[in-house]
C-alpha cells in the first residue's frame, strides 16, 4: 500500500529510500489489508474498541447512579432544613397579629397617660 504522507519537496536518492522505509513500517503496523500481518485485524480492533466503549459506558452509568443518590440525599437534607426553618420562625400572619396587639397596648398606654394628665 502506498504511504499517505507525501513529502513537499522532490525526493532524491537517500531521501527516497528513507521515505519508502518509513512508509513500509507504517503500512506493516496498521495492517490495512486485515490479513493479520501486524497485530489485530479490523475485527479485532473493532472488538477492542467496543469493549473500551462498553467499559466507559458502565463507568459512566455507575457515576450517574452515585450522583443521583447524592442528589436525593441533599434534596432530603434541604427539605428537612426548610421545614425546621419555617417551623421555628413565626409566620407573617402571626407577626401581623403581634404588631396589632403591640399597637393596641401603646394606644391604651397613651390614653391612660392623657387621662392621668387631666
Strand content: under 5%
Which percent bin holds the helix content? over 70%
Element-by-element helix/strand order: HHH
What spatial form do the alpha-carbon principal axes imply? rod-shaped
Rounded to the nearest angstrom, the radius of gyration is: 41 Å
Number of strands: 0
Number of helices: 3
Largest sheet: none
Query: Based on helices, strands and strand pairing, what is the structural class?
Result: mainly alpha
End-to-end gap: 120 Å
The average pLDDT is: 75
List low-confidence stretches. Answer: none
Report on this structure.
- The model has no long low-confidence stretch (mean pLDDT 75).
- The termini are far apart.
- With 118 residues, the protein is mostly helical.
- The chain has a domain at 14-90.
- It has helices spanning 14-30, 42-88, 92-117.
- The radius of gyration is 41 Å and the shape is rod-shaped.
- Helices cover 76% and strands 0% of the residues.
Summarize the structure.
With about 120 residues, the chain is mostly helical. Helix content is about 75%, strand content about 0%.
Task: Write the SSE topology.
Elements: H1 14-30, H2 42-88, H3 92-117
Feature tags:
mainly alpha; rod-shaped; about 120 residues
Amino acid at each position: 500500500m502506498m504511504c499517505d504522507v507525501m513529502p513537499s519537496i522532490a525526493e532524491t536518492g537517500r531521501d527516497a529510500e528513507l521515505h519508502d522505509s518509513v512508509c513500509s513500517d507504517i503500512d506493516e503496523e496498521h495492517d490495512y489489508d486485515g490479513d493479520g500481518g501486524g497485530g489485530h485485524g479490523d475485527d479485532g480492533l473493532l472488538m477492542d474498541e467496543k469493549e473500551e466503549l462498553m467499559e466507559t459506558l458502565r463507568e459512566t452509568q455507575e457515576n450517574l447512579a452515585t450522583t443521583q443518590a447524592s442528589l436525593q440525599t441533599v434534596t432530603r437534607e434541604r427539605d428537612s432544613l426548610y421545614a425546621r426553618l419555617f417551623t421555628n420562625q413565626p409566620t407573617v400572619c402571626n407577626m401581623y397579629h403581634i404588631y396589632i396587639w403591640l399597637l393596641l397596648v401603646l394606644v391604651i398606654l397613651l390614653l391612660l397617660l392623657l387621662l392621668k394628665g387631666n
